[in-house]
Amino acid sequence: MNSKICPRLDLVGTSTKSKDTISKLAESFRTTTSTLLSFIFPLSFLLLAKLTTARFLLTFGRIQTMSFLASLFLNQTPLVLHMLISLITIPALIHNLTGLARLTNKPTSPVRPSGAKLLGMWILLCTFQVCVGIGIEGSMATGMGVVDFDGLEGYYSLGKLCLLFFFVGLHETTRYWARMVVRPVVDDTFYGEGIKEETWVERVGVAVGFGGLWWCRMRDEVESLVFVVRWKKELLMEIGMADMFGWLLYYLTMVIGMVRVLNSLSVVGRRLFIRSRKEDIDRFGNDLEDNV
Questions:
Q1: How far apart are the first and last CA of the chain?
Q2: Per-domain residue ranges for the chain?
Q3: Among the four residues 59, 71, 250, 275, which has the most C-beta atoms within 10 Å?
């Protein structure tokens, strides 16, 4: 095995077997780190939904009065999260609308980002991590848990189809986040040069982890981003910028899911059409041979 697989490790003076063992451990740790950091984005979406719910319930006295620091946390954290999530969601939407998502799924030669771009990725990743960490600590301190919206008057679900599109869109955006931000930072830390191609272990790990997070928590809370705006509109209440940004991000993510589903259906339909045409041509050729 090439000793340059992890140049940040000093393997000088070790045997070949030891080098292989260290390289395998480093690769396993890199894969685990990359997979775990990929979950920061869906966790930030979950945190945004929980903050939206808490601010809404605080207005109607459904939760206990909070301290000044807790109130400051509820009012200021969503603004930062909106900005950060928008920096990923909008490029992911453009990425899918322009058809680039199909191109990036094909094997390509890894290219190391430039210094300024890599620094921006580091800053973005660290900012996401700090915000999510503070958000988790703050939600535990304020006692925010899962809220059952079915018990609130005027609540109605968006429907299974909308949730399906949002699920696909959020998963696609999470993959975009992992591919464009997480992996370049992690690979630069471990390898120092080039970007390693995504492995099937990473894809399966992200898919399974995202599915578990969705099933356990997100499917019961993400609709609050839409429900709060509709509820305030029906009550003729003032809709804040934070509420509108959350509503917009939800539907942008849902559009990403719709585009992804339509792209997948078009690929399947095109392949079926090509296969059927090929079978017709083969059948026509066989008929000609029989007539001759």
A1: 59
A2: 30-287
A3: 250
